[in-house]
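Ticket #4471: structure export looks truncated?
Reporter: QA, pipeline team
Priority: medium

Steps to reproduce: submit the single chain below to the structure queue and open the exported record.
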Amino acid sequence: MDNRRLILLLVFSFSLVMLWDGWQKHKQPPAQVASQAAGANAGVPTPSAGPSAPGAAPQAEAAAAAAKLPKAVIRTDVLVAEVSAQGGDIVRLELTHHKATEDRSRNYVLFDNGEKHNYAAQTGLIGNGLPTHKTQFALGAENIELKDGQDAVTLRMDAPPTADGVKVSKLITFHRNSYQAEVSYEITNGSAAPLAPHAYFQFTRDGKPAEQPGGFGVQTFTGPAFYTEADKYQKVSFEDVAAKKAKFATKAADGWSAMVQHYFVAGWAPAAGEREYFANQVSSDLYSAGVIVPVAAIAPGQSGKLSVPLYAGPQEQSRLETFAKGFDLVVDYGWLTIIAAPLFWVLEWFHKLTGNWGWAIILVTIALKALFFPLSAASYKSMAKMKTLAPRLQRLKEQYGEDRMKMQQAMMDLYKREKVNPLGGCLPILIQIPVFIALYWVLLGVVEMRGAPWLGWIQDLSVKDPFYILPLIMGATSFIQTRLNPAPPDPIQAKVMMMMPILFTFMFLWFPAGLVLYWVVNNSLSIAQQWQINRMIAAGGKPAE
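Actual output as written to the record:
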C-alpha cells in the first residue's frame, strides 16, 4: 500500500512539475542542430545596415527620421498595413480579426513602429548602388483599399535610378481573406554590363517578448526560427544571436525563415533554389533575421523579376500548411507533437460540429475519457479494492509495529490471498499522462482558442477565468476525487494528498480558462466513474477475514 501510494504520488507530482516547468520555460529553444560551423556566414553580404557594434543612439536617430517619411496604407478584409517610403518596409500591420491582448476594443498589431515594439518586414537588394531598406522610394499611392469584387491589391514603389542606369521597382501584393502577400522586385538593367544581384528579405524586431495571455509570469518563445528539409525546424534565441552563439542551417536549397511569437508568426518562403539564412544583432535591443536569395542574371537592356511570399498573421494551422512545407511547425508542441497534432485535429472537428471551442473541449475530454475507459476502470477498481483492505492494512501496521519487514511480508500475503495488485492502478495512469499533457499544450498554444468565448462569463478561453469560478470548481472536484481514493496509511502521505487540491486550485487560478475547463470536465467524469466502481465493489461485500 505504501509503495503503491508513493509511486502514484511521484507520478502525479512529476506530471505537475512537467506541466508547470514546461509552461514557465517554453520560451527557451530546444537543442539546436547546426549544419554549418559557427563562421559559415563569414563573407556573406549582411543585409542589416545597422551599426556593427551595439548602440542605441544611431538606431533612435534613424527611427526618428524614418517616422517623418511618407507612408502608404493598404486595407484588406483581414488587415491594415502601413508601408514606409523608406525601403518600402512594412512598418505596421494591424490584424482586424484579432483583438489586442490588453485592450479588447483595439485590433492586434503584429508589425509595430514603436507603440509597443519595433518590428518591421524589410527587404532590399545587394549590389553596387542598388536600393536597400534604407533607400527612399517614391510611393505609387497613399491609400489603397480592397474593394468588393477585387481579389488582390498591389502597391508599386519606384527607387531612384542608379548612376549606371539600373531601374528598380518594388511591389507588395495583398490578397482577400489572406495573411499571405508577395513582395517583388522588378529590375531593368540599363547599364552596359550584366547584372546579377542578391536580394534579402528580413524581419527586424526588438528583443522584448510578445504580450502573453497571462498567468504567473508565463513566457512563451519569441524569436527567429528557420526550417530546411535537411535540418528541420530550428528556433534561435535573441540571447544566442547577441552572443554570436546561434546555430542554424545557413545555406540550403529550400526552407523558410520566420519570426515567431505566441499565437502569431511572420515568415519568408522563397521558391526552391539557393539561399542563405542569417540572424544578426543590429543594436543593443534590435535583431534581424531572414534570408538572402540570388536574382537571376539580367543582361544589358533586359528586365528581371524576383518574388518572395510573405506570411504575417495568426498561427492558424490550415493557413500555415498552405504557405510552405513545415511552416505549421511554428505551432510548437515539443516532443509530444506526434500526439498533440491528432488531438488538435479532433478538437477542430468538434469545433466544426458545435461552432464553439468550449463545447469542443468538453467533447474532446469526453472522447478521451471514453477511449481510456477500460484503463481508468482498471485503475479505479484497484483503488476501490485497496480501499476495502485499508482497515486490515491498518491492523497489520499496528500488529507488527516497527518490524517493517514482517509487516511488508504480511501485506504481500494479504494482496496475494485477496488477488489484489497494489500497483494495478499505476500503469493506466502512466499510459494516459502523455495524452493529457499533449492536450494541455494544444489548449495552451493554438491561436484558435485566443478570444474564443464559451458561455456566460467565459468570453476568452485563452485567458484566466475573470471570476475564478472554474478554478474553484476544479479544486472542489479534485478534493472529491481525493476523498474517493483510499487514504494512505502513512500520515504524512495522507496530509500531502489532502493538500494537493488546494495547491492545484491556487495554480489554476491563473491558468487559461480552456485548460481549467478541460480539468473540470475530466475530474467530473473521473468522479462519476470512480464512484460507480466503488459502489459496485462495496455491493459485492468486503473480502473475507
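Status: closed, not a bug. The export was complete when the record was re-opened. Leaving a note from the reviewer for reference: The chain is about 40% helix and 25% strand.
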